[in-house]
Amino acid sequence: MTRIGNTSPADSSPAPAVPARNVSPWTRREKIARLAWSIVYHLLFRCTFHNWYGIRAALVRAFGGRVGRNVRLRRTVRIEIPWNLEIDDDVSVGDEVILYSLGPIRIGPRTFISQYAHLCAGTHDHTRGDYPLLRLPIAIGQDCWIAADAFVGPGVTIGDRTVLGARASAFNDLPADVIAVGNPARPIKPRPFTPVDRLR
Q1: What is the rounded average pLDDT of the residues 87-105?
Q2: Gap between the Cα atoms of 59 and 42, Å rounded
Q3: Mean pLDDT of all residues belonging to the chain
Q4: Is the CB of residue 183 less than 8 Å from the CB of residue 166?
Q5: Would you state the pLDDT for residue 11?
Q6: Helix or strand or coil: residue 38?
Q7: Pick from 72, 103, 147, 180: most CB atoms within 10 A?
């Protein structure tokens, strides 16, 4: 009888390795925690009334975020990893702000983050073919204003009392006490500033 088809023995060579760029940088514990946060975020955080700031702050704290007093997180704020957040007292974060906290994000006291701003604490090493994830910290000083639709890139520090103008993009550190605009953002003039306690 003639056998039809491939008569060679089964291929016993090992399966090809998963390319390095497809290997997750996150541990199993981190994946589970991120899934749990995603469920809480969509079912609870985003479903709160707009002025339930205390409840939203408590939810972020429950997942390891460090949130100060009188912090105003709008319900549409998008938080990627809450345990990488440190938000000081009297901070306001507006609607549709993205806190892409793959790395640490610290926001100093009395700072305003306006609607649609994007703080991006994660990128990839473009000099390598496997594009490893880089989780570079962002630090926003005290009494700053990150205006509407502005972008702050990975590893950037914004000095105290500095204003980053609407739709500006900060890819490098900005000094204190300036107003910066443009893409890339550059200081255009000093920022006059009177602290609240001197206004009374």
Answers
A1: 98
A2: 12
A3: 92
A4: no
A5: 58
A6: helix
A7: 180
